[in-house]
Amino acid sequence: MVAVSSANMMSTPATKLGAIVGGQTSCKAPEIEAFDKHLPSDVSIVSCHSLHGPGVDPKGQPLVLIKHRASDAAFTFVEDVLSCLGSKHVYLTREQHDRITADTQAVTHAAFLSMGAAWCANKQFPWESPRYIGGIENVKMNVTLRIYSNKWHVYAGLAIMNPDAQKQIQQYAESVTELFKLMLGGQRDELSARVHAAGEAVFGGSRDREDLLLKDEVLDQFSLGELPEKRLKNNHLSLLAMVDCWWKLGIVPYDHMICSTPLFRMWLGITQYLFRNPSLLAECIDTAIDDNTFRADDLEFTFAARDWSSRVSLGHFEGYREKFERIQSYFEPRFPEATRVGNEMIRTILEKTT
Description:
The protein is α/β, with parallel strands linked by helices. The chain folds into two domains: about 1-90, NAD(P)-binding Rossmann-like Domain (Rossmann fold), CATH 3.40.50; about 100-354, no CATH class. Helix content is about 60%, strand content about 5%. The protein is built from 14 helices and five strands. Strands 1-2-3-4-5 form a five-stranded mixed sheet, sandwiched between helices. InterPro entries: 6-PGluconate_DH-like_C_sf, PDH_C, Preph/Arog_dehydrog, Prephen_DH. One of its GO terms (biological process) is tyrosine biosynthetic process. Pfam families: PDH_C (PF20463).
């Protein structure tokens, strides 16, 4: 099999007769379009995408295979070659892949990127504050640092080149903004009604009987700071907005579990944990209305979500890179420890959710 970058097609007329060509990009629309335009008709096109980062063991993780233009024999050959990864093969079309990738990755990344931007704007290292230690907060911190320790283009390409991703990132920014306005206005009844409507749409019905993907006793193992004696209350705007976004877009995240990344499983796990715990959810709403502790953080988070959405909508790669690398440099001293703890957390959580 020959792997050809969709960004460099100058040599494609010289592709070996009867070759099989594929790509590993996270957005298949431009890749397949380039292959169709530049590759000779005798060349088979079988694309793929591993739904995990480079630091995750591929064994058992989903690997999407797209039989775009190929014989059964050529497709079987590609499957045999890729079987050495030990991944779980998932068969999709290009359109299905891009929609599901947007559903499971784009908004997840936007949420964590916005958290990092907010902490950087407030000159915070969250693991040094008792406000962000323990349970759910460990996922927020570890995954945010994990994302910022990677290359900017991994996330920019997925967000900017996938039209479905752009729509979802825009809706997430709108959900964050609208919920934050309800909090600022002290509109308890309106906030409660909206949060519970979103929760019912995403986690209600038969899904209410789903086992919890994550529990505090698992998450508490992976703190970057010292555990406080008493957990501080948080309104979890980022999580409330995620479920609101899924509700507004008609997305049922459980439908995509077969194609879910480790980060998405953790994100879904902590949102499910929050919304399936009535007392904790009520505490979030009360905190959002009555407690100003997180107001500065929430303000910067709202600014960040809107800013990331604007840069993505404009297709501004350099603008995306500038913001990403500026925040990356702020957190860089903690990347080695965060990567170690994050890898251990992911490994432990995957064992309990797969």
